[in-house]
Amino acid sequence: MYNVTPHHTARWRALLHDCVKAFADARGPREVSVIASPEGALLPHWRDANLLLSQTCGFPYRMLGLERDAQLVATPIFEAPGCEGPRYRSVIVVSNAAWRNGATTLEACRGLRAAANSIDSHSGMNALRHAVAPLAQSRPFFSSVTWTGSHAATLRALAAQDADVGAIDCVTLALLRDAGFEPLRHVREIGMTVDAPGLPLIAAKSLDDSDLEALRDALDTAHATSPARARELRLRGFARLTPGAYAEIETLALAAGEQGYPELR
């Protein structure tokens, strides 16, 4: 989920290879392939009975039934503004033009054009919906909502003045800033959402308990293999949360609904 540039993709792929090696050293050789990114819809990929390791968002894990179809392996711990241990926030950003026109708080964004990566994203949709709900008073808050497909695309839309406001995963934002992502020059940060458990690493339900523990240990080994790579990925390690920790995602969604704001609008 954090393949924000080709360089980051290569570093994540190297970490996965080290993880697979450590796992094989502990549990014996396995036929494992590492893919750069899954093709097509993500839910079938996450529900694959042969899935050894992947990363999803907390929203589909908790809200779209993935918790029943896959098991939680670990939650990454990142070093980025907005992160505390295995928890993260979304950064609310506006275009420079919106900022100049007075959009310096979320409340001042009423009637502006929102952009979000996807309707099943906690960081781009659910966290922003929760933040807007008490301001919306059961009515539409934005003049429009555009689904962009990625946080980077949301930032490009803001920079091009095709949208005015959005919420960006704070880890994604930090990695893009490290990479010198040009659209960031054209946006301003105006706040953060509440925090929530970070994006979970998952495996197929078919993985037995001993393999699951070996996989967790292999992740720790892979992380320690290259401190330089870990710094580039802003990765501090992995936490072992329980599936119940992700109930917070649902709590935030329900809170918005109870305030008459069941969808981002």
From TrEMBL:
Protein name in the entry: PhnD/SsuA/transferrin family substrate-binding protein
One Pfam family in the UniProt entry: Phosphonate-bd
Alphabetized Gene3D superfamilies for the sequence: Periplasmic binding protein-like II
